[in-house]
Automatic annotation (TrEMBL):
Family annotation (InterPro entries): A_deaminase_dom, Ado/ade_deaminase, Metal_Hydrolase
Protein family (similarity comment): Belongs to the metallo-dependent hydrolases superfamily. Adenosine and AMP deaminases family.
Signal peptide: none
Record's protein name: Adenosine deaminase domain-containing protein
Quaternary structure annotation from Swiss-Prot or TrEMBL: Monomer.
UniProt entry keywords in alphabetical sequence: Hydrolase, Metal-binding, Nucleotide metabolism, Zinc
C-alpha cells in the first residue's frame, strides 16, 4: 500500500521546483516525531524478516509468523481502514515481538528508519506487555526497550519513551504502568499515554493519569477519535493533559477549551484519512489549527501500517495547504516546544534547527 498524494502542482512547482524537490526538502528538513507507536512503525522489511526467521521455529512461533505475513499481504493492497478492523491486526505483530531479542531488533530498526527520514527527536510509545511463553514481564519489557534505545546505532536522533495504557486495561494495570513510568523516568521514560481501540472500552483510568501528573510525568491522551464521545472527552480533559492525540471529534465548546489552554495536538493526517475519521486532507482539522497558530505537531501514528513516513506528512501539508519552505521549517521548529524532554534538550534541538535553517 502506498500513501495517497494530494497534488497542488502549480504551488509545488513554484515553491519547490516540483514534487521530487518537495519530497527532498521534507526529508532533509529536521523534524520532531511525537506520536509514533512502536509496533506500528516496524518497517515491512523488518516485519517480514522476523516472520521468516520464526517460521522455522516452534509451532507457536510459526503460527505467529503466518499471522504477521497475512498482515503484510493485506497492507499491500489496503488503501482504507475501519477502526474496528484496524486494531486486531496488532495481535499478529505483538506475537512476533514477545521476547527481548526481537524487541531490541525492532527498536533499533524503527529508530534508524526515523533518523534516515530526517527525524532528530523521537518519542516512541508502547504498551508494556507480559508473555508467559517467553518470560516477558511489563517491567522487563520497559527495561528492554530502554536498553535498545540506549544502544541504538543511530547517532543523529535523540529518542525517549512514552508508556501507553490501553483502554482495555483495568484501573489496577493502569496504575502498574504509571508506577513503571515513575520508576524509569530517569532512564528515558518521559510520559504516559492513553490509547487503544476507542470502541473496546470506556475511559476508566483517570486516577492513574492523575497520579502520573502528580508525580511530574507528562501525559498525552488519544482523544475524540470517534463521534459521540463528548462526555468522555470532557472527562479526559479534566486530567489537564500536556498533549492530545488526534482530537478529531470535539464539540465547539471542547475545541475552544483546547485552543484556549493551548494544549498541543499531535496531528496524524494520513492515519485519519485512511481510517476515514476525516473525509479528506483538505478537510483535516489541522487546517483550522494552523490558521489559528495553535500548537500542532505533524506525526505519523503508525508509519509502516499507513506507508507514510514523517517527510510525507510534511509534503502532504505543504501541498494541501500551500505551505512554503519557511512555513514548514517554522512548523517543525515550533514542535520542539511540545516535547516531553527537559529544557536543556529543547535548547539543544533549537540549536540544531538554527544551524539547518533555510
Amino acid at each position: 500500500m502506498k500513501a495517497p498524494t494530494v497534488p497542488n502542482t502549480s504551488f509545488v512547482d513554484k515553491e519547490f521546483g516540483g514534487v521530487d524537490q518537495l519530497l527532498e526538502y521534507c526529508k532533509a528538513l529536521p523534524k520532531i516525531e511525537l506520536h509514533a507507536h512502536l509496533n506500528g512503525s516496524i518497517s515491512p522489511e523488518s516485519l517480514r524478516q522476523l516472520a521468516e526467521k520464526r517460521l522455522a521455529g516452534t509451532v507457536g512461533e510459526a503460527e505467529a509468523a503466518t499471522g504477521a505475513l497475512s498482515v503484510l499481504e493485506a497492507l499491500e493492497w489496503k488503501d482504507t481502514f475501519d477502526l474496528k478492523d484496524f486494531f486486531p491486526m496488532f495481535k499478529h505483530i505483538y506475537a512476533l515481538t514477545n521476547n527481548m531479542a526481537w524487541l531490541v531488533f525492532i527498536v533499533h530498526g524503527v529508530i534508524k528508519d526515523f533518523e534516515d527520514d530526517g527525524v532528530r527527536y523521537l518519542e516512541l510509545r508502547s504498551t508494556p506487555r507480559d508473555d508467559a511463553s517467553t518470560g516477558l514481564t511489563k517491567e522487563l519489557y520497559v527495561q528492554t526497550v530502554l536498553q535498545a534505545i540506549s544502544t541504538s546505532p543511530a547517532t543523529k536522533i535523540s529518542t525517549r519513551l512514552i508508556l501507553t495504557i490501553d483502554r482495555r486495561h483495568s484501573p489496577e494495570v493502569a496504575m502498574q504502568i504509571v508506577d513503571l513510568a515513575i520508576r524509569f523516568r530517569d532512564q528515558g521514560v518521559v510520559g504516559v499515554d492513553l490509547a487503544g481501540d476507542p470502541y473496546a472500552a470506556d475511559f476508566d483510568c483517570k486516577h492513574a493519569l492523575l497520579k502520573a501528573k502528580a508525580a511530574g510525568l507528562k501525559v498525552t491522551i488519544h482523544l475524540g477519535e470517534i463521534e459521540n464521545r463528548e462526555a468522555e472527552s470532557a472527562s479526559m480533559l479534566e486530567v489537564r493533559p500536556d498533549r492530545l492525540g488526534h482530537a478529531t471529534f470535539l464539540s465547539e465548546q471542547l475545541r475552544a477549551h483546547v485552543y484556549e489552554e493551548r494544549i498541543a495536538v499531535e496531528m496524524c493526517m494520513t492515519s485519519n484519512v485512511l481510517c476515514r475519521t476525516v473525509s479528506s486532507y483538505e478537510e483535516h482539522h489541522i487546517k483550522e489549527a494552523l490558521e489559528l497558530d495553535h500548537p500542532s505537531i505533524l506525526c505519523t501514528d503508525d508509519k509502516s501500517i499507513f506507508a507514510s513516513p514523517l517527510s510525507c506528512e510534511y509534503a502532504l501539508a505543504a501541498s494541501t495547504f500551500s505551505m512554503t519552505k519557511q512555513q514548514l521549517f517554522d512548523l517543525s521548529k515550533k514542535s520542539i516546544d511540545a516535547i516531553f524532554a527537559n529544557s536543556e534538550e529543547k535548547t539543544r534541538l533549537r540549536g540544531v534547527w538554527d544551524t539547518w535553517a533555510p
